[in-house]
Specification:
Blueprint (H helix, E strand, L loop, with lengths): L1 H9 L4 H18 L1 H7 L4 E6 L2 E6 L2 H10 L1 H11 L5 E6 L7 H4 L6 H9 L7 E3 L5 E3 L2 H8 L22 H12 L11 E5 L5 H14 L4 E5 H13 L3 H8 L4 E5 L7 H16 L3 E6 L11 H8 L2 E5 L4 H18 L7 H10 L4 H18 L5 H7 L14 H11 L4 H5 L5 H17 L4 H7 L5 H17 L1 H16 L1
Parallel strand pairs: 2-3, 6-9, 6-10, 7-8, 8-9
Antiparallel strand pairs: 1-2, 4-5
Helix pairs in contact: 2-3, 2-5, 8-11, 9-10, 11-12, 15-16, 15-17, 19-21, 21-23, 22-23, 23-24
């Protein structure tokens, strides 16, 4: 025991701070689920606490970048809730010679360790008798359990009045308006209503507009992201209030779930399925959105998918040029409210609409660049200056060409090995599987032949590549965790 205390002291982290950090990690696992936590957080370590800052480390630059861009606010919230004097969280790449403490401590992620960590919350989970004689947990988890019934935050700007309609989203808009117009007691016409669209095409805008209109219509409506649903459910289990959680959730008039493709975990999906069935069978409205149609949600329970397919499924397609002009015009009008002198000629608007064909977020980025050019340089906007200002947003119509080098680097970073390991002749388990995944992704995402892929992987024979591809296909069909990792790597490669 004394040796352990001395080791912690030599790391610059006290026993008390190490205990707090263990609680932070446990809360992150509860918030995010095992799949996300095991993929990204097992190698996140506390380096030291000083000058009001918590210094955390990860082994690779890629992991640092991913943490900062996707999870920084959540990490900061959990750290500051445990470390009262911490105001900032800094994530750095640790030196190659320092091993990850969690990987050395084999018991760090075992169920027994989690149980011990939950037990360490005992003072915070003290319960008291309420007037009706029932016990209610008084903990951060129970507060989150109650917060979920307020729903995720809604943006008042995302209303039906600001949703611009075109041929690509007309059906989805009409269906959402019909659902919003229904009153309490009316039998839902489309249940569930399932909307799917790629990033930036307006599905979240439509769902939040529906939530606003329904609440204004005196219907008890809750809008939740899939992440908020998951964390609320897991928190209710931790606080032993899951029965109340289920009863309250099934007593609402309308449930709206955004980004349902992120629902993870068998027990969470089962509870979501029970909730879905209970609401629909009771005549309550359910609205769901995802980034793909139900048939492509391979990670979701088949019973959930069956319910989705039994409702109305609407697609929000790519923006046509007329709709892109509408979006640009609306964004420019909004910018004029703060910058009255800002003006964009019609020919420039038409030019931008022709050049940017991706999504509404890129169009909003284009308006910001035009505004910066006009206000900072003072020069008038022309087609030529607009083309220069938005050059970084213009994307080719051709599919992105993924490079084998990029695949090898990304897979190596994800599995905490070097690219040289992937190209080497090493046959250890921690190298063979990432190498096979990299070969599989090279076959799927590039136009390279099997012999050429083999040459790029240290001069291997094409039969080795073929074996790797078939092996990963076979494993991914049985292992949902591996399938999720592969899909994640594909998305990262397509967005780089």
């Amino acid at each position: 025991m004394s040796d352990h205390r001395e080791q912690l002291a030599s790391d610059g982290v006290s026993v008390e701070d190490r205990s707090k950090w263990d609680r932070v990690r446990h809360r992150l696992r509860i918030d995010l689920g095992d799949a996300v936590y095991n993929s990204w957080f097992t190698r996140l370590e506390l380096e030291r606490i000083d000058d009001g800052a918590a210094h955390l480390t990860v082994p690779t630059k890629f992991l640092k970048s991913w943490m900062q861009s996707h999870y920084a606010p959540r990490i900061k919230a959990r750290v500051t809730s445990e470390f009262s004097k911490v105001e900032r969280v800094v994530i750095d790449v640790r030196s190659p010679g320092r091993k990850c403490r969690s990987s050395e401590d084999g018991a760090a992620n075992t169920p027994q360790h989690v149980e011990r960590t939950v037990a360490s919350f005992a003072p915070a989970l003290e319960t008291s008798c309420e007037t009706n004689g029932r016990r209610a947990a008084r903990s951060p988890a129970s507060r989150h359990d109650s917060d979920i019934f307020v729903g995720s935050p809604l943006d008042r700007r995302l209303s039906f009045s600001t949703f611009l309609v075109g041929p690509s989203n007309q059906l989805a808009y009409a269906a959402a308006c019909r659902v919003a117009a229904a009153r309490v007691g009316d039998l839902p016409m489309f249940n569930p209503l399932y909307a799917h669209a790629a990033v930036g095409l307006g599905k979240t805008h439509l769902l939040q507009a529906l939530a606003h209109a329904s609440n204004d219509n005196r219907r008890h409506t809750i809008y939740l992201t899939a992440e908020r649903f998951m964390s609320g459910f897991v928190s209710s289990l931790t606080a032993q209030t899951s029965l109340a959680f289920k009863e309250k959730l099934r007593g609402i008039d309308m449930l709206i779930i955004d980004d349902v493709q992120f629902l993870q975990g068998k027990s969470i999906q089962q509870e979501f399925c029970h909730t879905l069935n209970a609401l629909i069978d009771a005549g309550r409205q359910v609205v769901v959105a995802a980034d793909r149609p139900p048939s492509e949600l391979d990670t979701l329970d088949e019973r959930v998918l069956s319910r989705f397919k039994g409702g109305l499924c609407v697609d929000i397609g790519p923006l046509d040029e007329v709709l892109r002009v509408k979006i640009l015009t609306a964004r420019i009008a909004a910018a004029k409210e703060s910058q009255p002198g800002f003006s964009v000629p019609p020919e420039v608007i038409s030019c931008v609409a022709r050049m940017i064909v991706t999504n509404g977020r890129d169009l909003e980025g284009a308006v910001n660049r035009l505004l910066a050019h006009a206000t900072l340089t003072g020069a008038p906007l022309t087609v030529e200056t607009a083309e220069a200002a938005i050059r970084d947003l213009v994307r080719t119509q051709d599919p992105k060409r993924v490079k084998i080098d990029d695949i090898q680097k990304l897979v190596a970073s994800h599995y905490n090995i070097s690219r040289a390991d992937i190209l080497s002749s090493r046959r250890t388990a921690n190298v063979v599987r990432p190498r096979q995944i990299a070969m599989y992704l090279s076959k799927v995402l590039t136009l390279r032949s099997l012999p050429e892929i083999g040459r790029r992987f240290g001069g291997r024979d094409h039969t080795t590549v073929l074996h790797a591809v078939r092996k990963i296909e076979e494993l991914a069909a049985k292992d949902k965790g591996l399938a999720e990792v592969i899909e994640l790597l594909k998305r990262i490669l397509s967005e780089q």
